[in-house]
Structures are given as C-alpha cells and as structure tokens.
Amino acid sequence: MRQEIMRQYNKAVMLALLAGLACQSAAGDGVRFGRVPVKDADVVALTNKRWDKRVYLRENGKQYDLFAAYENYDIETIIRRGRYLALFLFSYGIAEDMEEGKRYHEVPHCMFVERRTGCVLGEGSQFTCDGEWVQAAVWQPRDREAWNMRALRKQVLAGTDKEGAENRRRCGMR
C-alpha cells in the first residue's frame, strides 16, 4: 500500500516538475532542472523512488549541479517569483540501527536562488518552506520573520569564507 502511494506521489511530483520545466526552459534562465536515476539500491527498495529532480547551472558552456554538496537530494517543489526561485528539496539517505535495521531518512530544505545567476541566497528549514512570496523579493514564512532576497544577496557578497567564494562570484554577476 505504502509503495503504491509513493509511486503515485512520485508520478504527480514528476508531472508538476515537467510542467515547471516547460516554463523554465522558455525563460532562458541560467538555472536548469533535470532528473537523474537513483543509484542507491536501498533507497529504491525502501521507497520505490527511481528518479531525483536536480537543479543545474549552465555557465561557460558547462553544466554544474548547483547543490552537489548534497550527495542525494530531490527537488519537490519550485516556486518562481520574478528573478527568484524558492526550491523545496529533501536531502536523503539510509539510516541503519540495531533495532530497526535500514530505513529511509530525509531532511527538508528551502533554498532561495537567483534564476539567472544561480546565486544561492539562503537556506532554511522545513518551517521556512511553509510560506509564500508576498513581494517580488520577499518570502514570508508563517509565524516567522520574512526573508528579503535583496538583503540576503548583500550578506552573501559581504561574506569572506572560502567555501562561499564560488557562490559570491555568481552573486556578483549581473
């Protein structure tokens, strides 16, 4: 029963993603979406999940997985507003313990990205995902402080950590 529900859910998500892909491709954005097969046999066995939706940045004739830091992730929802995207994704894996054995484990994330450059403006928790665009550059989670994309971009550009250097370069592009 659970596998059938997961299969129907995955089919519905894929159809929604493909509809979004059609709009996205026509927009000429630097950010693209695609799908890759799930390679972990345990994930396939426990969830019947066959494909992951991924986000890519096309730059200088090459394509990069924007969230390659997550070994396994799947984009569930894409909400576009002007020059920004709110991406709801799950990083996942297999957890194993002595009592329950192997089980599927996922962690929800909200990523805010500039469509043209691929600049990652911020990442939030599952509580951040529960919200909506209230202005062109403002995401308002329920019962939480708003996320202003322009202010987040300034914070990214002001950063000095080595790990964020590539993202700062993308954020500096106009």
TrEMBL record:
UniProt keyword list: Signal
Signal peptide (residue range): 1-27
Name of the featured protein: Uncharacterized protein
Organism phylogeny: Bacteria, Pseudomonadati, Pseudomonadota, Betaproteobacteria, Neisseriales
